[in-house]
Amino acid sequence: MQIAVIAAFVASVASVVDAWGSLGHSVTGTIAQKYLNSNAVNMVANLVESKYAGSLAGDTANWADTNGRTLIKESAEWHYVDMMAAVPKSCGYVQSDCVGRTCIIAAITDQTKILLDAKCAKSTATTQAVQFLAHFLGDITQPLHNCNRDRGGNDAKLTYNGQQSNFHKIHDTNIPVSFATENGLSGTDAAGLAKLVDSKYASKMSTYTSATFIDLQSVDSANNLLGAIAMASDANALDCNKNAFWGLYDQNPNQDFSGAYYDATKDFLIEQIAKGGYRSAAWMNAIANACAGTTPEPSPSKTTVTSAKTATTTVKPITTTSSTKTKTTTSSTKAAAKCAHSECVAGAKLASTCSACAGLVSKQDSYCTATSWDDICVDLAVQVCGIQC
């Protein structure tokens, strides 16, 4: 994308992009607060503005939308990353997707650095950093904040429950509110919805918060944290899922999306909200531990040569292009012949030795090869093996 086009994109979306809406962000913040360790509880209580009662719950995670953009105008560009791959045919991140320090991946990296460099001491900058992170760690799990198509879906007009809307907005707001209503909750009951979401996904928390996603040290050659890149790539993979999001949109863009589309997509989307909550907690815990000297984490720095080399190796499998997809998928298909079923299909556990891909997934989540190869294992296969399912 040319710089002029990026500038036009920024100017046009600054007022409309509001990932998860206020309900979704309040849910991720409420879940995060529940799972903070003692160091993080103290850090949050010390740094978060008093009007938010020293907690990530409530409206804290909405601060970046309600106040942050007014205080720091350039932060409007920090809520998304324009992944240029042609969803739903191809997904993946390359460094040129993040221009300068203006995308959400760089924002998470930079706000984390502010806290680590200050050792979490209270200041205006560290208060803003915690409140930005509370928001961005939710934003980055919203698939449409990790793709460029139709300005993240804002230009894809559609009908939801008989009303005109757009593809971005229904995922931010309409579907989470519909899910709450379907489960007997009001569309503003963040505490109730957080409890429900937590009950559905807490058993997968360790997978969502593995070292792949919670890494405050390893950076790529652009000095962006690999953990943030992994979170963005995880959400972006859903933009290429043929059973949800753009895959279903393209099948029938004229449908009322509150019907069959909602039924097919709601669980994918609510799971992303859960990931946002658990990852927010784990990220805050890691920062607070580092500041307390419990588990030292060096601040991301361009001088971290080893990390930068590691990043190059790590990022390549996440990035997918038409040519690499064809090659990787072919290799995976041959390997899968030795397995009980394809890595792209949920089902019985797969032996870690049945294919190279199964071995890589097993290293991330042993549940997949010890108990059951569920939908999360399929998602991991897409992420770590570079295959398209």
Question: Can you offer a commentary on this structure?
Answer:
The protein is built from 17 helices and 4 strands. Strand 1 (157-160) and strand 2 form a beta hairpin. A two-stranded antiparallel sheet has the order 1-2. The protein has a two-stranded antiparallel sheet with strand order 3-4. It folds into 2 domains: 3-292, P1 Nuclease (Orthogonal Bundle), CATH 1.10.575; 321-385, no CATH class. It has helices at 3-13, 21-34, 38-47, 63-71, 104-117, 124-139, 167-182, 190-201, 205-208, 226-238, 246-251, 260-292, 305-318, 322-336, 356-364, 367-370, 375-385; strands at 157-160, 163-166, 347-348, 372-373. Helices cover 54% and strands 3% of the residues. Helix 2 packs across helix 7. By secondary structure, it is mainly α. The longest helix has 33 residues, at 260-292.
